[in-house]
Write a structure and sequence with these properties.
Its main location: membrane. One of its GO terms (cellular component) is plasma membrane. It holds the Pfam family BPD_transp_2. The chain has 335 residues and is mainly alpha-helical. It has one domain. It contains 14 helices and six strands. The strands form three sheets. The chain has a two-stranded antiparallel ribbon. α2 runs antiparallel to α10. It is globular and about 60 Å long.
Length: 335
């Protein structure tokens, strides 16, 4: 049974890889590639957030703060101190993870609305610090970020590259790189979910009391997954900063935190592939609805409301249930 479950995970990862590397066939200009790259980076962020929300059942309304910290740490260290991108991403992830552990230990003892307010406060504090420390972060005006570099090799949206004899422009190269990062993020998340840690997280989500009765250290596991999700956000924030080439305090804003949590809920909490779909849909909707002009915001809210009413478990889980029911009916009719 376990082997079948793992094979199903592997098939899902292979399907995702095929989809990601087939998408360029439908992208016709740099804007489309830029949008797809943003989707991949943000999807990897919500994959980490889903570990906290979907599997451990712990809410976070300030996760953009960790994303912003990763973005600004990488931007500052590479732009002002000459660091390479990889060391900046790694050290930034470690520091943000330590901060998440320190902050998470006390606030994760809270539950429900109290936990929501505590994580919201953490996000607000981070955003205020980034906004006010103008000598370091550039304040409300933001700051430039150098191109992503590895051992002197730079990845820039304006460059030209060759991969296995195929000539790529900077936007195409960035998309392929972001797609590879998303695949790694999903693979790591799936391995965590299938491990004893993942089973402990699901038990915490089901019932903390029952989990403690069977010997699960709920405080430890909640803090651990909070740290992991924060590291995901930090690393993806750093990549986003290099891709954009310029960052502002908006990357750590409350609005962005709400967008991230909405992606998880919309796609399907507890579904890794579902939250990726949620990220894609929520990122694409504003582009599709621009034709409605002044009614864009109304249409956007209406679509989200109807989705949550008729698909409360999220997009992908609801679609999977509908397909499963249809297949069962068909099998029953043939019998």
């Amino acid at each position: 049974m376990l082997n079948q479950f793992m094979q199903s995970r592997l098939r899902g990862l292979i399907v995702l890889a095929v989809i990601l590397y087939t998408i360029p066939a439908f992208l016709s200009n740099p804007f489309h590639y830029d949008l797809a790259t943003q989707m991949a980076i943000i999807a990897a962020t919500v994959v980490g957030l889903n570990l906290l929300v979907g599997f451990a059942g712990q809410i976070s309304l300030g996760h953009a703060g960790f994303f912003g910290l990763g973005a600004y740490f990488t931007g500052i260290m590479t732009g002002n101190y000459g660091w390479s991108a990889i060391p900046a991403l790694v050290v930034g992830g470690i520091l943000v993870g330590i901060l998440a552990w320190v902050v998470g230990r006390p606030i994760l003892r809270l539950k429900g609305h109290y936990l929501s307010m505590a994580t919201l406060a953490v996000g607000f504090i981070i955003a205020i610090v980034i906004n006010n420390e103008s000598q370091i972060t550039g304040g409300p005006d933001g700051m430039p970020v150098p191109p992503f570099d590895v051992f002197g090799w730079e990845l820039s949206p304006f460059g030209s590259y060759s991969l296995f004899g195929i000539e790529l422009n900077g936007s195409q190269a960035w998309y392929l790189f972001a797609a590879a990062v998303l695949l790694v993020a999903v693979w790591l998340a799936q391995n965590l979910i299938d491990s004893p840690i993942g089973r402990a997280l699901r038990s915490v989500h089901g019932s903390e009391v029952a989990a403690r009765v069977v010997g699960v250290n709920t405080a430890r596991y909640k803090s651990l997954v909070f740290v992991i999700s924060a590291i995901y956000a930090s690393v993806m924030g750093g990549l986003y900063a290099h891709f954009q080439g310029f960052i502002t305090p908006a990357v750590a804003s409350f609005d962005f935190s709400i967008v991230l949590i909405t992606m998880v809920v919309l796609g399907g909490m507890g579904s890794t592939m579902g939250v990726i779909l949620g990220a894609v849909v929520l990122k694409l909707l504003p582009q599709v609805l621009t034709h409605f002009q002044e009614m864009e915001a109304v249409m956007f809210g209406l679509i989200l409301m109807l989705t949550m009413i008729f698909m409360p478990k999220g997009l992908l889980p609801t679609l999977q249930m509908a397909v499963s029911k249809r297949l069962k009916k068909r099998a029953g009719g043939q019998a």
